[in-house]
Write a structure and sequence with these properties.
With 94 residues, the protein is of the alpha+beta class. A three-stranded antiparallel beta sheet has the order 3-5-4. Strands 1-2 form a two-stranded antiparallel sheet. α1 crosses α3.
């Protein structure tokens, strides 16, 4: 089975990773929809919600994919860290 993959980006220009596009899309959609509902959310809370909602159906390590896809979405300018928030919070980039 030859599934489509996507090379992720990193906001600091580091090397990304090659992951299955269907896994990427699942996590990406979850992140964008959840941040959209909350307008801003800490990465910890976002990850906890993802683990609760996706763990039973997702065929990968949810937390690892959350970190990887979050960095990619930052690098693509889709989401952004809110400066000076600890733990860091995220929002959709305008």
């Amino acid at each position: 089975m030859n599934e489509e993959k996507i090379m992720t980006l990193h906001p600091q220009g580091k090397n990304g990773v090659n992951i299955l596009k269907r896994r990427y899309d699942t996590i990406k959609d979850f992140i964008i929809q959840t941040i959209g509902k909350h307008s801003e959310i800490s990465f910890d809370n976002l990850t906890d919600l993802a683990v609760d909602k996706l763990s039973s159906s997702f065929d990968g390590k949810v937390v690892w994919y959350m970190v990887t896809v979050k960095l990619d979405l930052e690098a693509r300018g889709i989401i952004e860290r809110i400066p000076k928030t600890i733990p860091h919070k995220l929002r959709l980039k305008k």
